[in-house]
Amino acid sequence: MHHSFIVKTSGWAQQMFLYFLVSGTHSLVTVHQPPVLTTALGHDVIMPCHLNLSQNEKMMTPPVLYWVYLTQDGTDNPRVWIPSEKYDGRVELLDNNPNTSSKSILLKNVQWADSGKYQCKVSVITEGDRFRRRGNDTLLMVYDTMILKLTGHNDSLLGCKVNVTRDPGFVLSIFHDGFKLQPVDTAPGDADAVLPYVTLSETISLRSKGQYECQLYLNEDLVTKSIFNYHTPVAADDADAQTNVSLTCPTTVSGVVVFPEPWPLYMALLLVPITILLGLTSALLMRMYRCRYR
């Protein structure tokens, strides 16, 4: 009998636990944010935030949205939405319908000072309660344009550098035809304490022709990359035998394609007026010659 009572008590406890668990699930209201975002300096970035309500919840009024920038000391957190003076004119709400679940914002013209944590908060009034829910914060990190080129003092070396937000998770590496190269010189975090960023750099020896690729990673995620195609010396004649012929491919950085300068076109444009000037000069000289010997 005692054993039977324990079983029944245990069964009742499990039912009550499931009841409260299911009830809590029905009344669940959550705010979701991505943990980390990266963006290029000067670009715009979408900062996602989504409000999730269970089917049994009914909002009495549209939720009130807040976005704040979390300072390190936790005091005087400036409002991002509705924008405070610091963010005035730089923030837009992506969905102006207050009843939708999307509470994402667009932060324009991102600067180094924008690096840091952001929190999305929503005030909700339901039939039975009034409360505020917070997201788990989003860490925004910024990187500058990556530079990948031959070093000025020695064309046998290829250097890559980029400025990034101070974070140990950023790693810079150079690959040759898919294989990671051992750098001859590296700066894992050359930083000035006054500056809001650090400079990552690597330099490698050019071994052979092929594609060299500089990649910036944040932990396991590729952030941006730059490509450099290198050709071994071409012996056109004795004077050019030691000349390295290199070609920089279009470099994709955050969807923006940068092409190399069209120097042959510039030279052709310069030759056109020179050719015309020489022709006019020759015609003038011939006319003067004919007039003189008539």
Short description:
With 294 residues, the protein is an alpha+beta fold.
Under the CATH scheme, the architecture of the largest domain is Sandwich
Number of folding domains? 2
What series of H and E elements makes up the topology? HEEEEEEEEEEEEEEEEEEEEEEH
* Average residue-wise pLDDT: 77
Which class best fits the helix and strand makeup? alpha+beta
Mind telling me the C-alpha Rg?
Answer: 32 Å
β-strand number: 22
Low-confidence stretches: 1-27, 236-261
Query: What count of helical segments does DSSP give?
Result: 2
Transmembrane segments: 263-286
Keywords: Cell membrane, Disulfide bond, Glycoprotein, Immunoglobulin domain, Membrane, Receptor, Signal, Transmembrane, Transmembrane helix
Organism: Perca fluviatilis (European perch)
Domain Ig-like: 42-123
Describe this structure in words.
The chain is of the alpha+beta class and 294 residues long. It has 2 domains: 28-141, Immunoglobulin-like (Sandwich); 144-258, Immunoglobulins (Immunoglobulin-like, Sandwich), CATH 2.60.40.10. The chain is built from 2 helices and 22 strands. The strands form 6 sheets. Strands 2, 5, 6, 9, 10 and 11 form a 6-stranded mixed β-sheet that branches.
Name some characteristics of this structure:
294 residues, alpha+beta, Immunoglobulin-like, 2 domains, six-stranded mixed sheet, 22 strands, disordered N terminus, immunoglobulin domain, transmembrane helix, transmembrane, Ig_sub, Ig-like domain-containing protein
SSE blueprint:
Elements: H1 2-26, E1 29-32, E2 36-40, E3 45-47, E4 50-53, E5 64-70, E6 79-81, E7 91-93, E8 105-107, E9 116-125, E10 130-134, E11 138-143, E12 147-150, E13 157-165, E14 170-176, E15 179-180, E16 185-191, E17 197-205, E18 210-218, E19 221-231, E20 245-247, E21 251-253, E22 256-258, H2 263-292
Parallel strand pairs: 2-11
Antiparallel strand pairs: 1-4, 3-8, 5-6, 5-9, 7-8, 9-10, 9-11, 12-13, 13-17, 14-15, 14-18, 16-17, 18-19, 19-20, 21-22
